[in-house]
Amino acid sequence: MSEAVTRSVTTCSPGLLASLDPLLHEWLPRQRWFAGKGRPVTAFSLVASTELLPVDGKLGLYHLLVRAHQPLAPVLGAVPHPGDCYQLLIGVREALPPRLAPALIGHVQEGPLTGRTVYEALHDPRLAEVILEALRAQARIGGLRFERREEIHPDLVPRVVTAEQSNSSVVYGDTFILKLLRRVMPGINPDLELPLALAHEGCRRVPPPTAWMMADLADDSYVLGVLQPFVQGASDGWELALRELAKGEDFSAEARALGRATAEVHTALARALPTVTLGHTQLESLVAGMTERLEAAAQAVPALSPYVPGLHSAFEALADLAAEGHTWTAQRIHGDLHLGQCLRSPSGEWSLIDFEGEPGKPLAERRMPQPVVRDVAGMLRSFDYAAHSAGGPPAPEWAAACRAAYCTGYAEVGGRDPRTDPVLLRAYETDKAIYEVVYEARHRPDWLSVPLSAVRRLATSNPT
Questions:
Q1: Could you tell me if residue 126 is left (phi over 0), alpha (psi between -120 and 50 degrees) or otherwise beta?
Q2: What is the pLDDT of residues 311-328, one digit of tens each?
Q3: Domain stops at, among 204, 229, 254
Q4: What is the pTM of this model?
Q5: Measured between alpha carbons, how far is 157 from 143 in angstroms, rounded to an integer?
Q6: Three-state SS annotation for the chain
């Protein structure tokens, strides 16, 4: 495959996007990683295009950055703004073999690919090999740049990960996993930045980046994908928790170990990157954002209204402490931590993955230092979700035991138990539960009772 990534390449012809337009209108909104669901796509515009494998035979591969234009959505910052940019890898064949049928995008009726079939290229091992070879060769193809920090052995058989994700992943021979970012933004992506920083610190709780791919366009650079070691035989934290709960098994020992792992990552990040002190002005802004999200959520989800006064008290208590002169340390954190972002190896070691943060937020916001309690709150909420998701009746005692064990484990490494900062922890848990209420109301109404049960608890709790 080396010829495919070292030969001279040309950019796609101007008519390519126009010929793909009707197919993308149908296909793109159906993808799990498409962020603008519920709003029509009014137009596509081409940000960049590169032929990774020129279509001069029976097989071709295009790399496209395409902007999908959509009308403005309602409030709440988690919803993307119009004009999200998506990374597409488009395979081209005269006809698809049956094994690639699930990857079909459509049959081109006009333009330079008339009569050809286009499809999601990552499902095709021959085309997935092109990407790995480009990384191995540190290729530069048009505006695409492939970098690596370690050797990559050739002849690793690729297979696409079919589980639903907010991005796409390909495993190469049980040795590496490539995470391909789908909605991309210009700037430094924490999904590369933070694992690199942790690798330099020698933190073994996060798989170190082996290689990555970038797009350099005008004055902007985009992180497109990250290749990391594949943890063979690892268990996803969410699936593992549900299995143990379904069997009636205690999970607190695992939760405690996961708390220790989280604290190790936070400690390493604090060494690697600057920390800041949040004073009165910064905390006022933090509380204002939480309050604004609560008020918008109450308008969007009427079921939240009875709890609004109690939820406001969580934020008011934090504002009162700030007014009294309390300060908190902020640092770089994971930013979207939950059980699904954790892997347990067959040896029992926990790893944290997916440092992208909340994809709906701007990169600058995702890269801001924040209190570590925000990550802790996300994990505590994840235990609550697991307790409602194992197929049986809710298991609040199981969740409570996991939450306590996680905080205990965190304190053993981090030196401070998150429960000793109850006002800040309650504020972040409340903010997370409010986000969950809006998400479930929009996307999974049958799940709305899960965050509402937390809302009831948080609205009446009074930490001291």
A1: alpha
A2: 999 999 999 999 999 999
A3: 229
A4: 0.91
A5: 27
A6: CHHHHHCCCCCCCCHHHHHHHHHHHHHHHHCCCCCCCCCCCCEEEEEEEEEEECCCCCEEEEEEEEEEECCCCCCCCCCCCCCEEEEEEEEEECCCCHHHHHHEEEECCCCCCCCCEEEEHHHCHHHHHHHHHHHHHCCEECCEEEEECCCCCCCCCEEECCCCCCCEEEEECCCEEEEECCEECECCCHHHHHHHHHHHCCCCCCCCCCEEEEEEECCEEEEEEEEEECCCCCEEHHHHHHHHHHCCCCCHHHHHHHHHHHHHHHHHHHHHCCCEEECHHHHHHHHHHHHHHHHHHHHHCHHHHHHHHHHHHHHHHHHHHHHCCCCEEEECCCCCCCHHHEEECCCCCEEECCCCCCCCCCHHHHCCCECCHHHHHHHHHHHHHHHCCCCCCCCHHHHHHHHHHHHHHHHHHHCCCHHHCHHHHHHHHHHHHHHHHHHHHHHCHHHCHHHHHHHHHHHHCCCC
| The pLDDT of residue 80 | 45
Residues 83 and 97 in one domain: yes
CATH code, domain with 440? 3.90.1200.10
Query: Do residues 169 and 243 share a domain?
Result: no
pLDDT of residue 154: 87
Cα of 5 vs its chain's centroid, Å: 29
Q: Which of 186, 213, 229 is the last residue of a domain?
A: 229
Which residues of the chain, if any, have pLDDT below 50? Answer: 1-11, 75-80, 464
Q: Provide the domain count of the chain.
A: 2
Reading the block at residue 389, the tokens are: 């998701």
Q: Phi and psi at residue 225, in whole multiples of 5°?
A: -170, 155
- Is the same domain home to 55 and 125? yes
Q: Give me the half-sphere count of Cα atoms (radius 13 Å) on the Cβ side of residue 339.
A: 26
The verdict on 215 and 281 lying in the same domain is no
Residues 208, 278, single domain; the answer is no
Residues 245 and 339 in one domain: yes
Asked if residue 244 and residue 151 are part of one domain, the reply reads no
Q: Given this model, what pLDDT does residue 463 score?
A: 56
105 and 170 co-located in one domain: yes
Which structural domain range is residue 427 located in? 235-460
- Count of other CB atoms within 10 angstroms of residue 394: 15
Give the pLDDT confidence of 89-130 residue by residue, as tens digits: 999 999 999 999 999 999 999 988 999 999 999 999 999 999
